[in-house]
Amino acid sequence: MKRLIETKIVNPLLEQYGVPSYKTVGSAGIDLVACIAEPVAIGGRQNRLIGTGLAINIQDPGLVAVVASRSGLCLNHQIRVGQGVGIIDSDYHGEIGVILHNDGENDYTVNPGERIAQLLFMPVVQVALKLVPAFTTVTGRGTGGFGSTGKA
Fold this sequence. Notes:
The chain is built from 2 helices and 10 strands; from the N terminus they run E-H-E-E-E-E-H-E-E-E-E-E. The chain has a single domain, classed as Distorted Sandwich (Deoxyuridine 5'-Triphosphate Nucleotidohydrolase, Chain A). 8% of the residues lie in helices and 36% in strands. By secondary structure, it is mainly beta. The strands form 3 sheets. Strands 1-4-8-6 form a 4-stranded antiparallel beta sheet. Its EC number is 3.6.1.23. Belongs to the dUTPase family. Keywords: Hydrolase, Nucleotide metabolism. One of its GO terms (molecular function) is dUTP diphosphatase activity.
């Protein structure tokens, strides 16, 4: 059963591009589009914030929306979500914006209505942090840092 998430169009241009939806039965993410009136250039090694024209009201602190890169855009044009993934908390009601980063040397032009990222919904577990002077269990790894589990 699908959960219903209240969704609001905050930029009328989105009506021209279509409300984002799952493209196939097996899709994990909803494609977000660039809700812009004119093409926007992203210079090499630069970031740009691109609006999606969409706002959501998750209403459930047990859910988070995650903005992820589109694999084809990254592979073919070196364009990815700038901070790795974007987090949309359940109590945020503003327009979803996507920070796009150009890892390439050349400019990339984002066109109006272009699919720029994916929106996924995932469960959240909030924890209470308990400060202790030492951990009650010991692991084989201990405090070993990056690469401490062996060689690849």
